[in-house]
Specification:
seven-stranded parallel sheet; Rossmann fold; six-stranded parallel sheet; single chain; alpha/beta
Length: about 350
């Protein structure tokens, strides 16, 4: 059989694109004839084809996988295809978190919220976290949703030899991901300022694309006003070697994001034995669980900085957290195996054969 993989956007380096390409590679290794389609994609990735090819090629003998994270004008046409269908749901960002700096994306997220009832038309739904699965509770039986993290263990940051055991020479806080409003990079910068005020000679590395000029300018002004601009390295996008180097220099991962469907950087950090500090209220807290610091949604930068300083100064607690982080990462990666995906594929096929 053929596995037809589709996402609205497939670009290398983007979480959704990486996951689709990783799934295609895994399926090929498992004996499937996998084909990948998108509306927008990196033309250097030769196996990705325009979505219109999907509509002309799909047959009742195929299995369709749709990656969903934002409004898609082709959703109804995809659901009308004669093949069996799996939806991988990444979650949809709350539009309110985007309106100030990204009104166009906010509108697309509004439209996505309106489309969510249509996802009940898929034979199987997979979500990247249980938190995200509950977003579909009004429309589907959440107990039927399969949870599989949106990664594969062949990522360079998740390699078996990638675990770092040494302590970085300086206290560097790593902020990793697209520099966009709902990630609340300004809150991370303020935490840095409060950690420095607490007597720690700390630095921060912010790794990720900076697509929003107004937001980027706002962050620079904020860092300058707080007196920590010279302590921050905005790297932009980096290649795999530089990303690994950023992890090697990191003392901890800091995510002040207000919304995450999963939080791959937290998983990568934990895999390497680096404590992760994340906010409660979204899936990052589920990923980290008791293997890192989960900060209350209303805690101030002073309170967060105090917890970070206390953890830094407690060697036994730091070591225990490092061990729990690696164990937690291993458990999550175990869910991404080809065997788990084979069960999902088989379930979709059996669902379609049920009268």
């Amino acid at each position: 059989m053929r596995l037809l993989i589709y996402a609205r956007d497939i670009f290398e380096g983007d979480a959704v694109g990486n996951h689709c390409l990783g799934l295609a590679a895994m399926a090929e290794r498992s004996g499937w004839d996998s084909r990948t389609y998108a509306q927008n994609f990196d033309t250097s990735v030769s196996q990705v084809k325009q979505i219109e090819s999907l509509f002309s090629e799909a047959t009742s003998e195929d299995l369709l996988y749709v990656s969903y994270s934002i409004a898609d004008p082709f959703l109804d046409r995809l659901l009308d295809l004669p093949c069996r269908k799996i939806c991988y749901f990444h979650g949809v960002t709350d539009p309110a978190l985007l309106r100030e700096f990204e009104p166009v994306t906010a509108e697309l997220c509004e439209q996505a919220m309106a489309q969510l009832p249509r996802l009940a038309g898929f034979d199987v739904i997979v979500a990247n976290s249980m938190h995200v699965a509950h977003d579909l509770a009004p429309y589907v039986d959440v107990s039927s949703v399969v949870v599989i993290p949106p990664v594969f263990d062949n990522l360079p940051t998740l390699g078996i030899n990638a675990i770092t055991s040494r302590s970085p020479a300086t206290f560097n806080m790593l902020v990793l991901g697209r520099v966009v409003p709902h990630k609340r990079i300004e809150d991370a910068i303020e935490v840095l300022a409060r950690v420095v005020e607490g007597g720690v000679d700390a630095t921060m590395t912010i790794v990720g694309s900076m697509p929003n000029y107004d937001y980027s300018k706002f962050l620079l002004k904020r860092a300058r006003a707080l007196g920590v601009l010279t302590r921050i390295d905005f790297t932009g996008m980096v290649d795999d070697a530089d990303l690994l180097s950023s992890y090697d220099r990191a003392s901890l991962l800091l995510s002040m994001s207000r919304h995450e469907g999963f939080c791959i950087p937290a998983l990568e950090a934990m895999h390497r034995g680096i404590p992760a500090v994340v906010r409660a209220g979204h899936a990052a807290a589920e990923v980290v669980s008791d293997a890192g610091l989960v900060i209350g949604k209303q805690e101030t930068a002073n309170q967060i900085a105090g917890q970070i300083i206390a953890l830094r100064n407690d060697a036994s607690r730091w070591d225990a957290l490092t061990h729990r982080a690696r164990a937690r990462a291993g458990a999550l990666l175990g869910l991404t195996s080809s065997e788990h995906w084979a069960e999902v594929f088989d379930r979709a096929l059996r669902r379609a054969d049920t009268p």
